[in-house]
Amino acid sequence: MEEDEGQASSSIYLPHKSKPLGPDEVLEADPSVYEMLHNVNMPWPCLTIDILPDNLGSERRKYPASVYVTTATQAARAKDNELITMKLSGLAKTLVKDEDDEDDEADDEDDEHVDPVMDSETIPLKSTTNRVRVSPHAHETGEYLTALMSETGEVMIYDLKSQYKAFDTPGLTVPKASKRPIHTIRNHGNVEGYGLDWSPLINTGALLTGDCTGRIHVTSRTSTNWSTDKTPFFASDASIEDLQWSTGENTVFASAGCDGYVRIWDTRSKKHKPALSVAASTTDVNVISWSSKLSYLLASGHDDGSWGVWDLRNFGAEAPSPVAHYDFHKSAITSISFNPLDESIIAVSSEDNTVTLWDLAVEADDEEIATQRKETQELYDIPPQLLFVHWQRDVKDVRWHRQIPGCLVSTGGDGLNVWKTISV
C-alpha cells in the first residue's frame, strides 16, 4: 500500500511506523500488486466469515472468478441481525499490465467489461454472531453444515444446502425449513464464546465449541441426531478464544485461551483434562491455526501483536520455544491462517487494520533481500519473511479459498474484501 501525501514521491505505509492517517486521508491500494481486489459493502459490520466449498473445481486460476461465502452481522439492534450467504461472481482480474505486454491478451479479453455480481440469501437472527464456520466436507457430503456462535451462548447449526443451490438454479425458492437451525447447542447456557471449529477429518460432523468461562464441548453427529458431551473439557476459568481440530488425528484438538496458554486435548480422555499445556504468550492467545499440510505445526496469534509457529513435536519439553516468532504488528492479532495449499505461507490480521502475508520458507540471509534492505532504508528492520501488507479498516477475520490458489476473503468494519496478490 502507498500513502498519498500530495508529493511527487510516495512512501511505504507501515502500520507500526507510519504516522496515523488524517481525518481526510485514505489509503488507496496499488493495483499493480494485486491480481484481484474487490470490495463488498455490507448493511452492517460483519466480523466473521467463512467460505463455502463449491462445485467449480480445484486449482482455479481463470477469470472472472466466483466465490461462495457466508457471514453474519453485528447490527445496532439485535432483531436486525442476519446470516448472509452470498455468491460473488464476475470477479475480474485487476492486475495492471504494462503497455508493451501483449502476452495472454487473448486470454484476458473475457476479463474486460465484466461487472461483479452479488447474489445473496439471508436468514434472520435474534442476536449478533461471534463466529461462523462452515464444514469443510460440504462438497463431498452435499450438506452445507454451518455453525454460528451467538453472543447469547447458543450455537446454532444450519444446513445451507438450499441457499447454495438457489444461486445456480433460476427460480428456486429457499424453503422456510432451510432458514431454521437443524440443531441448537445449549450446553454453554447463556455464556457467549468464540471458539468454534469443524473437524477436517470427521465428515459426518464433529464440532468444537468453547466459551468465556473456559469450558469446551464436543458435539458429534449420530445416525439420527446430534449429541453433545455433557462433561466439558476444562483447564481454567480463562476464556477460550479459539479452537482447532488436529489436521492429522481425529481425536486431538487445540485450544487458545486468555491465560496465554495453548493446550492440546484428546477427546478420548475420561478426565477431560489437557494432555499438554504450553505458555505461548504473556498476553491473551486470541487465535490459532493448525497446518493442513504439516500436521505438527500450529500457529498462534496474541493480544500484544506478536505471533508464532510451534512444532508440536517439541511440546513435551519443559518450556518449548516457537520455531518462528514475529512482533511486526503492534496491535492485537485477530485472525491467523495457514495457506491450505502451501505450508510455508501464513495470513495474519491485526487490529492495526492490516492483513499481512508471510513466507516462512524465506531465509534471512537471502542475497536479494539483503540488497533490498540496504538500498531502501524503510525496509531495514522489516522481517524478510514478510511478503505483503493489505490494508482493511477494522479487519477481524481472514480465510484462504481452498479451490482458488492464493485467494483470500477478509472481513471488517467496512465490509468484505476478496483479493489475491501477485506474491502468492
UniProtKB/TrEMBL annotation:
SMART domains: WD40. Residues 98-113 have a biased composition (Acidic residues). It is found in: Nucleus. It holds the Pfam family WD40. WD repeats lie at residues 233-275, 278-314, 326-360. GO terms for biological process: ribosome biogenesis. It comes from Candida tenuis (strain ATCC 10573 / BCRC 21748 / CBS 615 / JCM 9827 / NBRC 10315 / NRRL Y-1498 / VKM Y-70). SUPFAM superfamilies: WD40 repeat-like. Its main location: nucleus. It comes from the Eukaryota. This is WD40 repeat-like protein. Gene3D superfamilies: YVTN repeat-like/Quinoprotein amine dehydrogenase. Keywords: Nucleus, Repeat, WD repeat. InterPro entries: Glutamate-rich_WD_repeat, Histone-bd_RBBP4-like_N, WD40/YVTN_repeat-like_dom_sf, WD40_repeat_CS, WD40_repeat_dom_sf, WD40_rpt. Residues 24-90 form the Histone-binding protein RBBP4-like N-terminal domain.
